[in-house]
Amino acid sequence: METRWEVEGYSSTATQGADLSCLGVDDLRKLIDREGLGVKKNVGGAGRRTLDDMRREIQQARARRNSMDSTLAASSSSSMGLRTLPVQPQTAAVMDIWTSPQASAQSHHTIAEPFSTHVGSVVRAALGYLGRFSPAVKTTESEIELLQQRLQGCGFFMGQVQLEQLQYDGIRWIMEREQSAGWKGGILADEMGLGKTVQMLCAIATNKVPTLVVCPLSAFESWKEDVRKFFAPGTFALTDFHHLKKLPHPLPSNSLTLVNPELLGRDVWAKPPEAKAAREVNLKSKLLNAPFQRIICDEAQFLKNLMSPKGQNINAKACDCVAANASIRWCMTGTPIENGIKDYLSLLTFLKAEPFCRPDWFHDHVERHAGTEFVQDPLFAECFRETVLRRSKASLQNLPETHFHLLESSMDPTEKEQEMALLDEEESGLVRQLRSGQAAGSLAMPRSSVQDLQAIQALSLNELKDRARKPRELGGLGQELRPPSKEEEAQRQWCLSKFCFERAWIEADKEKLLKSSKWTLLENTLRKIWNARVKAAELECAWRRDEKQFSDPWRSDAVYWTKLDTHENTKVVLISRFSSRSFELAAKMMSKLNIRYCKIDQSVAPEDRGKIIDSFNNDPAVKVMLLGMKCGGSGINLPGAQVAILMDSWWTPAAEQQAINRIHRLNSAHKYVYFVKLFSRNNDTEQRQSEIHQQKLRVCEQTLGPVTVS
Predict the structure, then answer these.
(1) CATH class of residue range 82-395
(2) Domain extent listing, the chain
(3) pTM for the whole thing?
(4) What is the pLDDT of residues 495-504, one digit of tens each?
(5) CATH 3.30.70.360 fits 401-409+513-709, yes or no
(6) Do residues 290 and 268 touch, judged by C-beta distance below 8 A?
């Protein structure tokens, strides 16, 4: 497949001393991205900037960076007493650390320092700003051979699995962090799809202690599958606490227990006798009383409210309580920053990473420098280097190439009128909350379209609840109404709004809704994907010429056209945050197109999701997955899919990135993957979400943007 800016033959491992004169403008732009040089990438303009100017600025940026690294190396070791060991030649004594945990602990003083101050060798083009100051871990070929022998002795199927250099580097870093003299653990923040789970499992296998993994239910199958796929039976004593609700006694050293944050919270906290009473620790908690020595938070972004005095997440606090007696703590997440720099402080607090987790220290050396172009405090970089390892997909050559396509539409006057009617309701709080997740056009009708509206408005609270319990066919909802308020009239108003909203959907003409602007556009796009080879279809994709501003990947100041490398059996993932209504319509569309599909949302039991994922990835007849963003937007792998379509926006861009990256994986067999997002230009809710996206991305830019430490 050809694209306008495609340049073949450029390798990200090219040496810094390579001759730049042979590189064109596109090659130079890629080099700037990969090395994170912060050099302008435009040519021409009012100043008539030439390619020679760009090459000269690249050389100058490299020189400044090397000077910066040397200065930082000299100052950082004395600033906090943090260790900075000289790089030593590889000898048999040095490499003996890979033979056993005991030998590793004894020989630790001889190893080449993995927390190198050479920031420049890290891929700076990572979406996460933490990658700019991650330790420069580089495992040599001889060390990899010894590590392979060590892993094979621990039950790893070395002959059947080929790990990447990046993954060996990660395993080494994890092993080193668990042997550190102070606090043990860290944040493994690789981008989604780089194999964080298998890296962590390999490190766990070399240092077996009772381990608790706190992760979403959607990630359970990923952990179980990696244990089955990569390790011999008996390597781990795996326990699904969500299913069994009990632990083996006593805990074996190779125990690996999986639990989701919600169940962890219910197990740790005793139910207070009064509604407003403070929560107390459950003294009979199975997880709290278990002797776990290692706690791993997978998809650790749920810890982000750990430091908030008002909105503290009880599940995050429960996780912190369980980890109190553990000697090793890990966070794994591809999106360590979702809303701001304080998200990072919450992770450090869970890790007990002294002194970085102290609020005053963090404010003085990290938070106040966020967004500053020149940072004179060496502890700013030291904090990231000692706590985080983040690598970018840009460092790998065997990942599918990504293309982003924004599928824009405009609501017709009728759809716009319905939208405004919903937002103008007196009970707009509930209506907006429900409406915000509606996918692909005006999926709900105003409450004035509900039959017998006047009679319903006259019902009392108990009568409304009785009416809701009736089957949908008899004018009810087929469900129980549970209003959150205590005051009777407030309960009645809530139930009235909820009832009218749900009945409006039940009574809506679904076939008519499928003819709305977005659904029509979605259907045409699906047909285009499956008929691409027959009709030589092309796709307009976003491309930012100047990526200095951290931006929405679907928005650009330039576009390019690329041929769709899809066919009639291409697998597509349709993603929705609020899935019930959008998936009901999507199911009707699949029936119309005669397409087999599967679905993962909150209605699917966790124990059934693994079979559904296997069926989608391996069965050629299943071409579409309907994936709920909340329950399937993280922790699962869908390498069989080539196209991911976001059917509705969400307020957090990091959540969208987590969801679409389910298909952009190391084990994908595709050369190209396509990310499509549906968007209504005149939808007030989606316009507001777009504005919120830009605000949050601007916060990221203040910490993600190029920073010079001097």
Answers:
(1) alpha beta
(2) 23-63, 82-395, 401-409+513-709, 445-507
(3) 0.69
(4) 888 888 788 7
(5) no
(6) no
